[in-house]
Design brief:
By secondary structure, the chain is mainly alpha-helical. It is 60% helix and 10% strand. The protein has a 3-stranded mixed β-sheet with strand order 1-2-3.
Length: 99
C-alpha cells in the first residue's frame, strides 16, 4: 500500500493474538519456510521495480509514526532472520523428540 499510496495508514496488530488465531503452534515449519521465500521475493521485486525513488515513500504506523520503505527493508531483514532462527529451533527440537 505504501508503494502505491504514500502516507497510507499502517495498522498496528498484536502478533501474539495473530499467532494464536492462526494456531502457529501446530503449523508445519517446513511449509512456513516454503511460503516465506516466495512472499519475500515478490515483495522485494515490487520494491526493486519502484527503484530508488520508492525507498523514501512512507506509511504512518498507528504506534510508531512515519515509516519509510527504506526503514521497513532494514526492519524486515532483522525480523526475518529472527523468525528463520525460531523455525530452525522448532525443527531441531522436533527432530530431537522424534529420535
Amino acid at each position: 500500500m505504501i508503494l502505491a499510496s504514500p502516507g497510507v495508514a499502517i495498522q498496528a496488530f498484536d502478533q501474539n493474538a495473530w499467532a494464536s488465531a492462526f494456531d502457529y503452534q501446530n503449523q508445519d515449519p517446513e511449509a512456513a519456510v516454503a511460503l516465506f521465500r516466495p512472499l519475500r521475493e515478490a515483495w522485494l521485486a515490487l520494491v526493486h521495480q519502484g527503484g530508488e525513488a520508492c525507498l523514501d515513500r512512507y506509511g504512518v504506523h498507528a504506534e510508531r509514526g512515519n515509516e519509510t520503505i527504506r526503514h521497513l527493508l532494514r526492519l524486515y531483514a532483522g525480523h526475518d532472520v529472527n523468525h528463520l532462527e525460531q523455525i530452525a529451533r522448532i525443527l531441531k527440537e522436533r527432530d530431537a523428540h522424534s529420535t
